[in-house]
Each structure stands twice: as structure tokens, then as C-alpha cells.
């Protein structure tokens, strides 16, 4: 039976005498409807409905380009009390397609706050909804999987239920969707290394977060951020010491061009580190398939096992797809890159959360070690990347000296 904690009266076909512009409706593609109050901008918006389990860090979530095309529902009931500021932006704008909360804070009370969440949503044109039972919606999505959805507020909230559902069901599916072009930089830009310089890293921007670039620079890398349209020749022309693929939205199965770019650079011996979308693309480059998870992992409290150390890390996630690689053994790359092991697994569902290549300098993780927002358990991965690049450069220098 469809769960509707806020049932909407049946449509009578009558036009309301005085339209309540603060009315809002969340409509899922299976016909489930939840009535609440408008939050942020008024109008209509469509996307894939997903839930995020973090109790804090909503600003980092909203400005994470990986959430492009998604209507994000916060499972924590009270959102907005710390407001918004310029320092916690993970990109230049809010990327979510829509925002769903239960109890928006009526006041902002934090010394770092510069404005309210509601004001930022409205200014950015993000249509949201509040005052609905977000945990009931979460249970519904957990049972049936992430699905297309729409939020209707203002005058659009008074469209007939049938018309609203038709609009939702006419929206794009996330599977098969390539969103890299929507979130990537248009032009190359660079950050200088902080402290002792190790080398340079070419970052393919598939939706990169500001904190990621900062942590790379702090490890001694000159960071060159590249548009997603670049070719392998463009990358190698920079003569980087390493390559990094960022997080990002969309289906990794729809990014064949980026997979081929990665294969070419790996064959050139370029050390590689990838996170999130970059992990999925490494998996594909090595010859593994990817698949869509029922409702994905999103939040800052996901337990992951590092299989080498036996350590359990609490990590930040935002992914709806995963790599289909064997977790019970070391396997051989079907593309000729040697042996590959699954380095990390999710403890909630045994999903592949990391890949490590044993015969080439390449590894990746499915989660977000930049921890923005979230715990810092996985920040050491940036150190591991730095050490791998240094080791690779030392090997190259020794080989040249031997020649």
C-alpha cells in the first residue's frame, strides 16, 4: 500500500478561489504524493529522488556537483539552523535539482553564517518542499529504489494530480545519462603547490569539489584542472606527474570517452588516483562492468572496511552506481593492466568501495576522502597518492640513469 503520511484531497476540478502559493507537493513516479509547504523558490522541478543521511553538512551537499539532476531529501529532521556562508561552498553554485526537508529552521544562529538557507535556495531558483515526513519518504525509497520525482509549489502545486504525475514520468532516467558536460569547467585553470613541491597533477573535472583541489595542492602538487572535453593527447601535452579523475554525477556507463582517455594514459604509465565517479571509470577502464544501486549511498556516516589494514573507516558517500568486481579474490584486468584487488568494501551491503592495481600505479575509492562535509578517516588517501607519485618518479629517474 502506498505510504502517504500527508494525503492530498482528491482533485475536484474546481479552481481555488484564493490560491495558496505556499502549498507544495512532492510527487514520485509510482504515484505517491506528499503535501507540504514551499521552501526556497516557487515553481516546478524534476529529478531523481534520493536521500542523504548526514545530520550536518547540508551546504556541502547542496554545492556538490555530484548531486546535479537529483532531488535531495534530508533524513535529519531539522535543517538550516547554521545558515549559509561563503567558506563552505564546494563549488560556485547550488547543484541539486530540488531540496526536501522536514523542519526548516526558523532562525539562523551560527557565528559563521552570512545568510539563511531559504534565501540561498530562493536566489538560486531551487524549488524545495518542507513540512513532510521525510523519514516515511526515505523508507518508501529504500523499499522501491530511487525514482523520478517532481516538486510542485506556488501555482504549480494546483495542477491536477494526473498532470503532475505525467510530467514526472516524462522526466529523464538517471541510468544512461551523461552529466559531465553540465558540471565541468569550461577552461583549464591551475592551483600552485603548497609547501614543498612534489610535482604536477592533471585533474579531470567531472564535478570536482573545492576541498579536493585544496588537499591535492597541500600535498605538494601543482594542480591543473581540465575540462571534461580534453583528449589523452591534451593531458600528456601538460607533462603531468600524475592523473586524477574527480567525483561527478551521471551514469559511468555513458562515459565511454573518459574511459578510453584513462586507458590511454594508464598505458603511458601515468600514476592515477580516482574518487567516486573516478573509481567507477577506473573499474570500466580495467574491464569491469558498472551497475545502478537500488537507492545508492549518500551521507557522511557510511562504514567502509580497508581490507589491507582491517580498519573500519566512517566515510562520506554520494553515489548511485558501483563497480561489479569480485571481492573474494585478486582478479586479472580484461584490458591488460595486470592484477586488481578490491581494496575497500562497504559494510552495509558489501559494495565495492575501492580498487587497487597491483602491477601499475593506480588506485581509486568510491567514497569522498576530502570529507566535505564528513569525518576525516579517509584523508590519508591523499598522502598515499603523493607517496605513489614520488615512488613512480624515483623509479623513472633510476631507469633513466641506468640507460
Automatic annotation (TrEMBL):
Signal peptide: none annotated. It catalyses: hydrogencarbonate + L-glutamine + 2 ATP + H2O = carbamoyl phosphate + L-glutamate + 2 ADP + phosphate + 2 H(+); L-glutamine + H2O = L-glutamate + NH4(+). It holds the Pfam family CPSase_sm_chain. Residues 22-152 form the Carbamoyl-phosphate synthase small subunit N-terminal domain. One of its GO terms (molecular function) is ATP binding. Residues 1-196 are annotated as: CPSase. The keyword Cell membrane does not apply. L-glutamine binds at residues 66, 248, 250, 277, 280, 318, 320-321. The keyword Nucleotide-binding applies. NCBIfam families: CPSaseIIsmall, PRK12838.1. Composed of two chains; the small (or glutamine) chain promotes the hydrolysis of glutamine to ammonia, which is used by the large (or ammonia) chain to synthesize carbamoyl phosphate. Tetramer of heterodimers (alpha,beta)4. Small subunit of the glutamine-dependent carbamoyl phosphate synthetase (CPSase). CPSase catalyzes the formation of carbamoyl phosphate from the ammonia moiety of glutamine, carbonate, and phosphate donated by ATP, constituting the first step of 2 biosynthetic pathways, one leading to arginine and/or urea and the other to pyrimidine nucleotides. The small subunit (glutamine amidotransferase) binds and cleaves glutamine to supply the large subunit with the substrate ammonia. HAMAP family: CPSase_S_chain. This is Carbamoyl phosphate synthase small chain. It comes from Agromyces flavus.
